[in-house]
Amino acid sequence: MPIDYSKLQAIPRRDEPYHIVVTAAHHDDIEFGVAGSVARWIREEGATVTYVIITDGGAGSNDPETTREQLVALRRAEQLEAAARVGVQDLRFLDYPDGCLQATLELRRDITRVIRETKPYRVVCQDPTAVFVHRAYVNHPDHRAAGEASVYAVFPSAETRPIFPELLAEGYEPHKVGELYLNLTQEPTHYHDISATIDLKMASLSAHVSQIGAGADFENGAKKWLLQANRDGGEMVGVAYAEHFRVLKFDEERESWYKEEMGRRASGRPNPAQ
Fold first, then answer.
1. Strand (E) or helix (H) holding 183
2. 125: which of 23, 90, 154, 173 fits an S-S bond (Cβ 3.0–4.6 Å)?
3. Do 121 and 177 touch, CB atoms closer than 8 A?
């Protein structure tokens, strides 16, 4: 079903400091997807942010002269630099093998542990339902596995005491997340104006030299493509540059499905369930 971008809502500003956990399958996924929003949340809203990088990045090269161990170390260093450029200092590397990630209970427990420890108001993850993105991209299965494990870590695992009792033994009490943001989604409900932080996003992305090159290779490749993608996303909603999300709210009283649907129809908002 085509997206009616004119009906997307702007992500509202929060007035009090809060914590965010951002999960991603690979080193550079966050920079391609949500780094502009992360930079705004930190600079304008006082948010603190934890990155959870799920795989070790070891499948990110076809160079026969590069060993997996070399690439894993290099990509970790690049991710640390990329995060620092938007103000993120807390990074968790789960080091699952790159390229063959599955949404196992072990992975869900590891993400649940981070959520219970850091107690975020908002969790941002990749949309596990996205398979064919536009006309020219098949979503990486690692992205979908990372998203699925993250969604189910948010609910029910993070907030339910009997799930993963071993986390209780480690001292991690249940925590209820307020919001879940899905990126790389074909069903957005909200947009975020990143015009003020697009340069920070590009600076952060440029740290991943092993993946996107440097100098002219970066300027004429990944940077040019992503600037245009975010510019196009902004044009669809009336701003210079934008990132899009599907947003689920857990910190408000749940309405009946009928009242929610009538409110959606009256406002002209797209149906996030479709």
1. strand 179-183
2. 23
3. yes
| Closest listed residue to residue 17, CA positions, set 135, 133, 122, 137 | 122
pLDDT of residue 66: 83
Nearest Cα neighbor of 241 from 196, 271, 190 is 196
CATH number assigned to the domain comprising residue 148: 3.40.50.10320
pLDDT, tens only, 111-138:
999 999 999 999 999 999 999 987 788 9
Q: Nearest Cα to 79, choosing from 111, 112, 57, 107? A: 57
- pTM of the predicted model, to two decimals? 0.92
Q: Please, which residues have CB within 8 angstroms of residue 72's CB and are 6 or more apart in sequence?
A: 56, 57, 58, 95
Instruction: State how far the Cα of 118 lies from the Cα of 28, in Å rounded to an integer.
Output: 22
- The tokens 């300027």 sit on which residue? 219
Residue 126, SS3 per DSSP: strand
Residue 197 domain-assigned (yes or no): yes
- What domain range is 187 assigned to? 15-267
pLDDT tens-place string over residues 22-66: 999 999 999 999 999 999 999 999 999 999 999 999 999 888 878
Task: Judge whether 266 and 30 are in contact, CB under 8 Å.
Answer: no
The two three-digit tokens of residue 183, written as one number: 């990126």
- C-alpha 8/C-alpha 116 separation (Å) is 31
